[in-house]
Amino acid sequence: MRISRKMEHVHYALELGQSRQQGLSDIKLVHNCLPETSTDHIALTTTIGDLIMSSPILINAMTGGAQETESINRELAIMAREKGMAMAVGSQMSAIKNSEVASSYQVVRRENPNGIVFANLGSEASVEQALRAVDMIEANALQIHLNVMQELIMPEGDRSFVGMLSRIEAIVRHVPVPVIVKEVGFGILRDNAAQLQNIGVRVLDVGGSGGTNFAAIENARRPAAMEWLNDWGTPTSIALLEALSVYDRGSVIASGGITNALEAAKALALGASAVGMAGAFLKVLRSEGVDALHHFADELHQGLILIMTALGKNTIQALGHNPLVIMGETAEWCRARGID
Ligand code: FNR
User: Which residues does FMN bind (predicted)?
Assistant: First the structure.
């Protein structure tokens, strides 16, 4: 049951695609016609919490738990190793409940022994399960995903969300690696960011809407669907600015609907320290194959180097201070909420 659900998620994520209404078209980077730099001077290194990453792009959590998902994880892990990207595995709860499927997650560490790898569980996890997930893949950090709306739309999903915050707090206290709390495409906003900061969560991945849409995916999986919920959630541009009104730069990952170097650069210019991409990597891998996946990763890095050169910003940190103008719905939202 659980295993076929994972392949259904892959199937529908690809079939439905990404709307790219992640709000980043509201962000205008201010062009610099005298940049005083060269492509040779650009460094893509960044830090998230205490983690030093050689690329600001990370392969966000997707899968594991079945044979077919093992081959997806293997190809993504090889690409992560070759291109120096951090990578998260999909939720490991299935392997915690059935150790026979652990190999479909462990392949990520086997293929990339020295890389940065993130474990992943939902907020229903206990401290003991969190420790096992980290141990299973010798993870450098643990992602805890929040996906309340997805669970509610799934007929077989969770119905009670009592105690999420206190379970996350216990995990933060007892797990020996940094904990990253992430949404799966509905966004983390200011008040929740403050709650998470209060319990000691050091890093947020805002996981806004405009990319892979888990309301639409769950609705596509069943006949009597609640399609009227398909627009639920807050676009990534807005979630990012909300999170950054609480969290310091250096602690926020942007994700949700990011598909190319320009969208990544805009998120980094807004103040994210790294950018998570899931659906875009999956699409290239499944529809065009492994060579295209490696080419896509090169294009992302070369595209970022090109944009940073054009702007005269040699580091990701400097890119975060590039002048920009916020327009449209993102600007209106920020005005209404008093976020500058
Ligand atoms: C996901 N995502 C996800 N997230 C998570 O924390 N645990 C998980 O197990 C999964 N599973 C999963 C399966 C598939 C097939 C996809 C495409 C995605 C969510 C993912 O990490 C990310 O938050 C969202 O997909 C939004 O980013 P993109 O896809 O718009 O870049």
Answer: 61-63, 91, 120, 182, 212, 278-279
pLDDT, tens digit (0-9, with 9 covering 90-100), for 305-333: 999 999 999 999 999 999 999 999 999 99
pTM above 0.80, yes or no: yes
CA-wise closest residue to 190 among 244, 242, 247, 250: 242
How many whole angstroms separate alpha carbon 180 and alpha carbon 88?
Answer: 11
CA-based R_g, the chain, Å = 19
Alpha carbons 103 and 87: distance in angstroms, whole number: 16
Closest-CA residue, ligand 1 atom 25, reads 212
Task: Decide: helix, strand or coil at residue 164.
Answer: helix
Which pairing describes strands 86-88 and 324-326: parallel, antiparallel, or unpaired? unpaired
Record the tokens describing residue 55, joined without a space: 């690329």
39 is in an annotated binding site: no
Q: How confident is the model at residue 218 (pLDDT cuts 50, 70, 90)?
A: very high
CA-nearest residue for atom 1, ligand 1, is 62
Length reported for the chain: 340
Q: Cβ distance 138 to 115 under 8 Å? A: no
Say which residues have a Cβ less than 8 Å from residue 96's Cβ, sequence separation at least 6.
Answer: 121, 129, 132, 133, 136
Backbone angles phi, psi at 138, to 5 degrees: 45, 55
Burial zone of 81 (CB within 10 Å; 0-12 exposed, 13-18 middle, 19+ buried): middle
**Token pair belonging to 114:** 């020295």
Interatomic CA distance for residues 178 and 24, integer angstroms: 28
Question: How far are the Cα atoms of 81, 122, 141, 193, 335 from residue 180, in angstroms, in the given order?
Answer: 21, 11, 7, 12, 28
Q: Is 125 in the pocket of ligand 1 (CB under 6 A)?
A: no
Say yes or no: CB of residue 255 within 6 Å of ligand 1.
Answer: yes
Residue nearest atom 5 in ligand 1 by C-alpha distance: 61
Q: Which two tokens stand for residue 285?
A: 């891998």
CB 240, CB 210: distance < 8 Å: no
What is the separation of C-alpha 50 from the centre of its chain, rounded to a whole number of angstroms?
A: 18
Tokens of 101: 């499927």
Asked if ipTM goes beyond 0.95, one says: yes
Short-list 184, 129, 118, CA closest to 151:
184
